[in-house]
Amino acid sequence: MRHPITGQDFDSPVPPGTGWPGDPADARTTVAHSAPDVERLAATGGVHDLDARSSVCRACPRLVEWREQVAREKRAAFADQPYWGRPVASLGDVAPRLLVVGLAPAAHGANRTGRMFTGDRSGDWIHAALFRAGFATQPESVHAGDGLELVGARIVAPVRCAPPGNAPTPLERHTCAPWLDRDLELAAPTLTGILALGGIGWAATVGAALRLGWTVPRPRPKFTHGAEAELGSPHGPIRLVGSYHVSQQNTFTRRLTEPMLDAALARAAGGPRRRDDRGLAGVYAGEAPVAQPAEASHLKWPKCGFESRRGYRSRNDHRTAPQEPWGTRRSMRALTPVTRLPSEGTHP
Ligand code: SF4
């Protein structure tokens, strides 16, 4: 079947390295077949390696079967299109100021188009907001290959395969977590803000910060729309801001409006920013790197005798390590068997 933008023929799911726009992998990319594989492959390499390896991952048998079944069977409205049918890699700038943390690909959205928040209504919302804030080159996100670029922003997901019923299991979220951890770790040197979409995106971000040994306020910050918390990375403080998810359920009912989303995005981005001649405000020519404020010095890492998985030292590692919400057997037992995500087709 022909790609709707390029007209090239593809199988569904799409084999890596066959020409799909933005495909970060090729036939030689190492494939993860288990949770230890994911942990090992996510621990090394740069952003391109991360994107390539995560886009061919097969570590969760149930999700692999589901995403590929959806890709073969398709929805009637897209019956003439090839489906990506693989994990969806993060989208955007390799050195972002702003990270947007979503949930998981939608079966007929990103699982079809192969790009985060692309091909469904929730994508229309977040990309329009990123465009208004100067982080996107266009307000629409129709399909991979449509010309969209994010500048200064990167969109990531805690679970990178479309889950049946929009409900990944705790084990699947735990297996996928190293990809998210690595995204945060690689972004940290330039990162100043994170916009977490929904309570699951918020919890995933806090969990990743804890696993990375970043400082997280105590008591643990709770999600609500407009909630804010400061995370302490080795490179300085990062502002975490919560927003209701851009799901159809939230936007149709006006629980989330455009001004609400714009305000949360502006807070996460550090307020209104000067734009370049393309109208982009993310990372623009001529601007010096963002200096870390002097107060950040208290977030440096004094030795405390405990070393986290990533090798960072944190003054409260000894308190935070046993409380990782997604990263430990203890926390997995505390979770309900399945956490439901917003309704089908309403998230990245
Ligand atoms: S959900 Fe994550 S860990 Fe599981 S198969 Fe997909 S990319 Fe791999």
Automatic annotation (TrEMBL):
<dbReference type="InterPro" id="IPR051536">
    <property type="entry name" value="UDG_Type-4/5"/>
</dbReference>
<feature type="region of interest" description="Disordered">
    <location>
        <begin position="308"/>
        <end position="348"/>
    </location>
</feature>
<comment type="similarity">
    <text>Belongs to the uracil-DNA glycosylase (UDG) superfamily. Type 5 (UDGb) family.</text>
</comment>
<keyword id="KW-0408">Iron</keyword>
<dbReference type="InterPro" id="IPR044147">
    <property type="entry name" value="UdgB-like"/>
</dbReference>
<dbReference type="InterPro" id="IPR036895">
    <property type="entry name" value="Uracil-DNA_glycosylase-like_sf"/>
</dbReference>
<dbReference type="Pfam" id="PF03167">
    <property type="entry name" value="UDG"/>
</dbReference>
<keyword id="KW-0479">Metal-binding</keyword>
<feature type="region of interest" description="Disordered">
    <location>
        <begin position="1"/>
        <end position="29"/>
    </location>
</feature>
<keyword id="KW-0234">DNA repair</keyword>
<feature type="domain" description="Uracil-DNA glycosylase-like">
    <location>
        <begin position="89"/>
        <end position="265"/>
    </location>
</feature>
<keyword id="KW-0411">Iron-sulfur</keyword>
<keyword id="KW-0227">DNA damage</keyword>
<keyword id="KW-0004">4Fe-4S</keyword>
<keyword id="KW-0378">Hydrolase</keyword>
<protein>
    <recommendedName>
        <fullName>Type-5 uracil-DNA glycosylase</fullName>
    </recommendedName>
</protein>
<feature type="compositionally biased region" description="Basic and acidic residues">
    <location>
        <begin position="308"/>
        <end position="321"/>
    </location>
</feature>
<dbReference type="InterPro" id="IPR005122">
    <property type="entry name" value="Uracil-DNA_glycosylase-like"/>
</dbReference>
